[in-house]
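@channel sequence for tomorrow's demo:
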Amino acid sequence: MKSFRDGGIIRAGGLCLTGGALAFLVVFSYLAANFNYPDVLDGPASTVLPSLLGTGTRGRLVWTIYGFLPLIWIPAGVAAFEALSPVRRGPMRLAMFFAFLAAIAMMLGLMRWPSIHWHLALAWGQAGPAEQAGLAATFDGLNTYLGNFIGEFLGEMAFSLFFLLTALTWLQAPDRARWIGWLGVVTAVAGLIGMFRNVTTVVAPVAEVNNYLLPLFMIVLGVALVRWPTGAGRSPSIVAHEL
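structure tokens (generated this afternoon):
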């Protein structure tokens, strides 16, 4: 029964990872078409807040869905741990914790849009110049703290480290396609470099490349976990390799 339960958890986590990648692409595309996302993130409150309110109830719903999507990192982290912990238990336990941290950090960053920013947008149209100055300062501060530092920097660092630890452990696992591990290493390193794009424009090209590598590796890893053989996470040969 243990191998069955482990296999079910691994496949469920793989489905979350694959489905989450596709959902991210759909939501991102919708916001790009209707909200000029992500370029709008660099705009002033006087432009962004009325534009946010203009997306209406549907736009707020999409932002809410977007805000909850990072939670897929939690089952993905558990699935990767169940699959690869017999190879290297310590690194995979750390990878699972990084996946949890990524989920919370990115969710906090994205949730500011349908919640705090939405109410700032409602207040903006009724405020005078003095009040708008205060709303703009609040808007900018939230973008810096929840957006740049928590959602983007901490969140991206956490899931890149989750990928890196998972990929390095994958490369040590017997009978696993090594190209998946190397794709994970490249994706993770690109993510760790690209997260500094708010500090220097030098890494902007790396960040652009990582925008394509990230969903690709999420789908590849997700499919690999979905296809994980029942009980493979606890096979005697891998346990012997760990010892």
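heads up for whoever presents: The CA atoms of residues 86 and 236 lie 9 Å apart.
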